[in-house]
Amino acid sequence: MNAPVLWIVIPAFVSVFLLLIKEKKARSIIYIAFSAAFVILTFLVKINLLREDNSLSIELSSTLNILGRSFILREEDKFLIQLIYLINAVWGVAILVFNKKSLIIPFGF
User: Fold this and answer.
1) Angle CA(61)–CA(44)–CA(92) in degrees, nearest 5?
2) What is the pLDDT of residues 22-70, one digit of tens each?
3) Which of 19, 54, 89, 102 has a CA 20 to 30 Å removed from the CA of 35?
4) Residue 107 CB: number of other CB atoms within 10 A?
């Protein structure tokens, strides 16, 4: 597995799945759970770093090639990934607390 699959392709599939869910509370909870999981994964996953003996980290490759184009996520990009998914999680909590129906939930990923 590589980093772009984890933080680009999987969220795209989750967003399609969320579009199919009609109940807004379940949609919000799933959205918050996946957003929080992606934030936690950014702390656990190392992108193209040398393996350390004492760590419990997972190492991923940084490049995904599709139709001659390369999607590259580096270790330096993890802060922005954390920020994006943290904002998604906070937005999902706000929508759940204020009991609003919003299409930002499936399109947030």
Assistant:
1) 105
2) 888 888 899 999 999 999 988 888 777 655 555 555 666 777 778 888 8
3) 54
4) 10
Neighbours of 71 (CB within 10 A): 16
pLDDT in tens, 63-85: 777 888 888 778 888 899 899 99
Q: What are the two backbone dihedrals, phi and then psi, of residue 50, each rounded to the nearest 5 degrees?
A: -65, 145
- Greatest alpha-carbon span in the chain: 47
Angle at the Cα of 61 from the Cα atoms of 40 and 41, rounded to 5 degrees: 5
Alpha-helical segments (H) within the chain? 3-4, 10-20, 24-44, 78-97, 104-107
- Of the candidates 50, 55, 109, 104, which has an alpha carbon nearest to the alpha carbon of residue 81? 109
Helix or strand (DSSP H, E) at 58: strand 58-60
